[in-house]
Design brief:
Mean pLDDT: 88
Number of strands: 7
Radius of gyration: 25 Å
Distance between the termini: 33 Å
Order of helices and strands: HEHEHEHHHHHHHHHHHEHEHHEHHHHEH
Strand order of the largest sheet: 1-3-2-4-5-6-7
Structural class: alpha/beta
Number of helices: 22
Shape: elongated
């Protein structure tokens, strides 16, 4: 086994041990005895296991040169493969393009309407040619409607507007054509009771990557109408499209939009495609970072490591510990620190009362504000310093997840599409690594947002907005989400933190 591989804690499903054995962790923790500095590194969630090990090989010499003994937590997600594989296909679908055109047209008509017009009951939508021309800007690398500024206050979609839009879409023959394309293969190959099973089996994949549940609902509605040839429109498809338009308008009203075009794309994906845009993978990946510390009859990688590390601390060894988390690695760190708090009160195997983490370093953290806020509230009792390296909003907006299709970064996509609310419903969430949430007006995010803003603002050394050339330990030239753990300035800043 290579030296860097021996420093890895490799977990798999539900945070169980994968290629790493308990004997490997015993030896790893034993090697930390009397070391002055230890780094626990949690890579991002976009890489598979092999790339995780490659990250360990690349970063081990960096940490060693700074006088620290590194430990790498390695796991796999497959999220990036799903996004890069499915998003271009989804956005290229004829049904997506029709929905994009219709939602954009009505949302633009509502959001950018002059003050007073909507109050007078006038709904003016841009001509179809104008909408097509705006969307065609994507082929030249420009973002549709980016030059337009909405009014400071946008009213929610009114009932009269809903009725008008519903009537228009109900008579929309192109939308009806797209509906027939979606359900046609299902209805031809299976009766209604087995439609969902056929979709899950992949027979409808040639038509769309819409969520199987959505396709099954559309197919059931069409068959229940008993008029396949005469079907002109789909009431369900219309209702869902109106719901998307209302959601887009609502986000402008609450100032949680990401610009018109990205917001329209996000809301269409959340309503129609959420099963195939990585939401399940994202949820499972976050759950895995929590499950690895859970009590279980099976050995969990994170819990076993902390068990052995706590016993090492009980011998009197006190290394200065720095935890580094890139992207979803920040979620991993949140769960680790939460488990350390639990151990302080564990009578059977307590964490020594005088042990503290020296530094928490977050690189483009993909955790939500709600996940990070409880961590910073523990600062006085659990760690000394926190420093977040992440991009300015201008750099975040320039880091396109899917060029020419989705002109925002991964963190924008997580915020607008992948995050779920308390009831597992789609819900726009403030992401801790996005500068826009700290610069935006309003109280979106509630008390967690206020607490995190106050904590970061209390010490300017807690945030490094990349790209920036700052004093030692406060520099970064990273301009992409994935570039932070490979950026010379960030690595030099981490080394300086370890030396302080």
């Amino acid at each position: 086994m290579h030296s860097a591989r021996r420093r890895c804690v490799h977990s798999g499903t539900s945070g169980r041990l994968a290629s790493t054995s308990t004997a490997d962790i015993d030896a790893l923790v034993a090697s930390l005895k009397d070391r002055p500095r230890v780094v626990l590194h949690f890579h991002g969630g976009l890489v598979d296991d092999q790339l995780g090990f490659a990250t360990a090989e690349r970063l081990a010499p960096v940490y060693e040169a700074a006088g620290a003994e590194p430990v790498f937590f390695v796991w796999s997600s497959g999220l990036l493969e799903t996004l890069h594989g499915n998003l271009p296909q989804i956005i290229g679908e004829s049904v997506f393009q029709t929905l994009l055109n219709r939602v954009t047209r009505y949302a633009a008509g509502v959001v950018f309407q002059r003050p007073g017009q909507r109050a007078a009951g006038v709904l003016t939508t841009p001509p179809a040619r104008a909408v097509a021309a705006e969307l065609a800007l994507l082929r030249t690398g420009q973002e549709p409607y980016a030059r337009l500024t909405p009014p400071a206050e946008v009213a929610p979609l009114g009932e009269a507007e809903r009725v008008r839009i519903t009537a228009d879409l109900s008579a929309d023959t192109e939308l009806a054509d797209r509906n027939r394309e979606i359900v046609g293969s299902v209805l031809r190959s299976a009766p209604a009771p087995t439609a969902a099973r056929d979709i899950d089996g992949g027979r409808a994949a040639v038509a769309t990557l819409m969520s199987p549940e959505t396709v099954a609902e559309l197919a059931a509605e069409a068959e229940a109408a008993d008029s396949r040839r005469a079907l002109v429109t789909s009431a369900l498809l219309v209702r869902k499209t109106v719901r998307v338009i209302a959601a887009v308008v609502g986000r402008f009203r609450l100032h949680t939009d990401h610009g018109l075009y990205p917001t329209v794309v996000e809301e269409i994906l959340r309503e129609f495609y959420v099963a195939n845009v990585g939401a399940a993978i994202w949820d499972a990946m976050k759950r895995q970072t929590a499950d690895t510390f859970a009590a279980s009859d099976e050995t969990r990688a994170g819990r076993y490591f902390l068990d052995r590390f706590s016993r090492l601390l009980a011998t009197g060894s006190r290394p200065r510990v720095t935890v580094v988390g890139h992207s979803v690695g920040a979620v991993f760190i949140s769960n680790l620190l939460t488990d350390l708090v639990r151990r302080r009160a564990d009578a059977d195997d307590p964490l020594p009362a005088d042990f503290r983490v020296r530094d928490v370093a977050l690189l483009a953290p993909a955790c939500t504000v709600a996940q990070l806020a409880p961590v910073v509230r523990l600062q006085r009792e659990l760690f000394d310093r926190l420093r977040m390296f992440t991009m300015t909003d201008a750099a975040e907006r320039a880091d396109h997840l899917v060029p020419l299709l989705y002109p925002r970064s991964l963190l924008y996509f997580i915020s607008g599409v992948l995050e779920r609310g308390p009831a597992k419903q789609s819900a726009v969430a403030p992401i801790a690594g996005m500068q826009r949430w700290y610069a935006a007006d309003g109280a979106f995010g509630g008390q967690d947002s206020e607490d995190l803003r106050a904590f970061l603002a209390a010490d300017p050394h807690r945030t490094v907005w990349s790209p920036v050339e700052g004093e030692p330990g406060l520099s970064s030239s990273a301009r992409t989400h994935g570039g932070f753990d490979d950026d010379a300035e960030v690595l030099a800043s981490l080394a300086r933190m370890l030396a302080d």
